């Protein structure tokens, strides 16, 4: 059956990017303004991601920022894409998201990842134990979370209050086939990080669909793909705006992370051949251009992947230009 953008939910991943010349406080203001705009444009979800020790990402206290966004919006779902569960005890996350769900009923999502969202030294500083051990316990920790959220846990000696008995959708996030097997075996929705790690995307979602076991949470597979989108009124303008994204990802490749820089007229001389090759691989699921261009390319992507929902991340330096990009993207889905 042919899928259509017009019947596909569309959502947003905000990496709470700090731009050059600004501070995290500025990011939180623009994020809320963005959330209020996209809610009016029909976006389904607004997710924030947990990262640590990165000067360009302000969402380290992810649950707090989720509360900030949820408090300033009314209907849109708000959640984590994701909480890096090995950094936390399941009980603390159950309490935090139980609190969020109690404050904003029916609007909170809990996406979970097994990566640390940072470097190994910082991971040790967060958790104080070997990363390997906590990452290996990820499936058991997800089950503990489910137990804390269940009404049946009321007879347990350890309870999540608030949290117990609340319906908080849990998602498995991933960038590899390991996460696909886990999401399938647990019967949970699956969100793939194709916006920066597309290499195993098709293989992973096929594994997920083929091995999916219906659960009390979900009766059939549900795949959300996160992609990069930079849209503007013309292809030329979008291509220039995208140079901020390219420069940011150069920092990821080289390990020399910087604040999001302004766009440049040309990337010539900025990337080495190796960096350009790595950039092209990482940004394979990136859609840049005018409404017509993005619409055509996203429709092709949808037909190829048959995903159930598309989530967009947009690293754009100028806030009005970022708003315009998300407005154009909404028009792509709504016609």
UniProtKB/TrEMBL annotation:
It holds the Pfam family Bac_luciferase. Residues 24-307 form the Luciferase-like domain. This is Luciferase-like monooxygenase. One of its GO terms (cellular component) is cytosol. Gene3D superfamilies: Luciferase-like domain. One of its GO terms (molecular function) is oxidoreductase activity, acting on paired donors, with incorporation or reduction of molecular oxygen. Signal peptide: none annotated. NCBIfam families: oxido_grp_1. It comes from the Bacteria. To bacterial alkanal monooxygenase alpha and beta chains.
